[in-house]
Design a protein that fits this description.
There is one protein chain. The protein is of the alpha/beta class. 39% of the residues lie in helices and 22% in strands. The protein folds into three domains: 131 residues, Methylthiotransferase, N-terminal domain (Rossmann fold); 229 residues, Alpha-Beta Horseshoe (pyruvate-formate lyase- activating enzyme); 56 residues, Nucleic acid-binding proteins (OB fold (Dihydrolipoamide Acetyltransferase, E2P), Beta Barrel). Strand 5, helix 6 and strand 6 form a beta-alpha-beta unit. Iron/sulfur cluster binds next to helix 7.
Length: 460
């Protein structure tokens, strides 16, 4: 079905492209979901820019609005449907304006989006962005335009993203796409397709370009960076980290997301070895109960996770660690929930992202397990882990009082023009007096005070 639509578009390509190139059209893009979507939006802007689209930050000016979407939880999708409602008035004012849904929701809902959302003209999945110019042209002529084909090879390796960040300090670099883990609750393997790694040469080229443009920090992105594997083991994630770190000792290197089962000692030792690889690991545990981890098909036990943490602390004593948690997964008992609270205390996470379980259609859990934990219990457990994490973050931050960190300045504090904010290598936000410092500077800051969310200090 999708193929037929794409083929039709091919036929009209020539005459439409003539019409299209006359005017410089304006593209507005809105991004939801994870960091990978942020990186993808920058790719999409680059792809359309080559076809004559100028990027605008003003939605009212746009000829084409793209919404880069997320399907991870039901709420993520609800938010996007609400946003589409809000866009109706724009379309009323400007009938020729096109609206496209791209990203994970496009992949999950496919032609349903065109059928049910009269507002939507274009639907494009995460592996079909090269087709966007063609699909836009087709939509211009009043045709429905959709391509949601997933690919085993596409990594957009040679496309140079157009950076959309405001500060020019920190950039995302995608090193792989897709995910093969098939965690029982997760929609990502369905929306992003099979796992594949990007050519390390193109990754290093992109990082070098960023260094030339004076970027100070890169974050290497993948759903499970520990599975990075180029040419059957020729380059693994530890090798890639090392090659990136060696490009420039001043460049800060970050990465996300690490996966407990696959994170090797070699990766941990590489982080320890290079001063410019930041001592911060986002290592989502999801649950502290081995029984639940097994049901989630995460492939590791509570003990295995604790062993990874012990190894990290052994080689990188000042490493900050954050996690994701899901409360109320199928059959979760009070006992399982207590296991989650106790592993949180044992690790002493510096930060965490916490969610209620949301059943996603077609996943293993949706097909085989009952979403049997009542909403009130999910909420109560979520509140308990949020409360505990709040205390743990505060404790972690209090331990930093008196210590000095190198802070990379990202911007001016929203609360006061006289203060700057940036991040320590441990990814903590640090606020301090502006003096003569600028965005992009590395500043040594001695921590004098904190909340659970922020460190406050003085430059030295
Ligand atoms: N690849 C990463 C996570 C990507 S999704 C990893 O495996 O760690 C980000 C987070 O969303 C997950 O870590 C999980 O905590 C949460 N999440 C994913 N699916 C979910 C669902 N169905 N319900 C609630 N939270 C979910
Ligand atoms: Fe989803 Fe698991 Fe893949 Fe993370 S590793 S994206 S949770 S399937
Ligand atoms: Fe959401 Fe897709 Fe990322 S589902 S979390 S945008 S990979």
């Amino acid at each position: 079905m999708q193929k037929i639509v794409v083929d039709k578009i091919e036929e009209q390509k020539n005459d439409l492209s003539k019409k299209f190139n006359k005017a410089k059209q304006k593209l507005y893009i809105e991004t939801y979901g994870c960091q990978m979507n942020v990186a993808d939006s920058e790719l999409v802007v680059s792809i359309l820019n080559k076809e004559g689209f100028a990027y605008t930050e003003n939605i009212e000016d746009a000829d084409l609005i793209l919404i880069n979407t997320c399907s991870i939880r039901e709420n993520a999708e609800k938010r996007i449907f609400n946003r589409l409602e809000q866009l109706k008035h724009l379309k009323k004012k400007n009938k020729s304006m096109l609206i496209g849904i791209i990203g994970c929701m496009a992949e999950r809902l496919k032609e349903k989006l065109l059928e049910e959302e009269k507002l939507v003209d274009i639907v494009v999945g995460p592996d079909a962005y090269r087709d966007l110019p063609k699909l836009v042209k087709s939509a211009e002529s009043g045709q429905q335009a959709i391509n949601v084909l997933l690919s085993r090879e596409e990594t957009y390796a040679e496309i140079s993203p157009i950076r959309l960040d405001k500060n020019g300090v920190s950039a995302y670099v995608s090193i792989m796409r897709g995910c093969d883990n098939m965690c029982a609750y997760c929609v990502v393997p369905f929306t992003r397709g099979r796992e594949r790694s990007r050519d390390p040469k193109s990754i290093l080229n992109e990082v070098n370009e960023l260094i030339e443009q004076n970027y100070k920090e890169v974050t290497l992105l993948g759903q499970n960076v520990d599975k990075y594997n180029w040419n059957s083991g020729e380059v693994n994630f530890a090798n890639l980290l090392e090659m990136t770190a060696k490009l420039n000792s001043k460049l800060r290197v970050r990465f996300s997301t690490s996966y407990p089962q696959d994170m090797t000692d070699e990766v941990i030792k590489t982080i320890a070895k290079f001063g410019n690889i930041c001592n911060y690991i986002h290592l989502p545990v999801q649950s502290g109960s081995t029984r639940i981890l097994d049901l989630m098909k995460r492939g590791y036990t509570r003990d295995w996770y604790m062993n990874r943490i012990s190894t990290i602390k052994k080689y990188i004593p000042d490493c900050a660690i954050s996690s994701d948690f899901i409360t109320g997964f199928c059959t979760e008992t009070e006992e399982d929930h207590k296991d989650t609270l106790s592993i949180m205390e044992w690790v002493g996470f510096d930060y965490a992202y916490m969610f209620k379980y949301s059943e996603r259609p077609n996943t293993y859990a949706a097909k085989k397990l009952e979403d049997d934990i009542p909403e009130e219990i999910k909420s109560r457990r979520l509140n308990e882990i949020i409360e505990l994490q709040h205390q743990l973050s505060l404790e972690s931050n209090k331990k930093d009082i008196g210590k000095t960190f190198e802070v990379l300045v990202e911007g001016v504090s929203k609360k006061s023009e006289n203060r700057l904010y940036g991040r320590s290598p441990q990814y903590k936000i640090v606020v301090f007096e502006r003096k003569n410092y600028n965005i992009g500077d590395f500043v040594n800051v001695k921590v004098t005070d904190c909340t659970s969310a922020t460190l406050k200090g003085e430059s030295i």
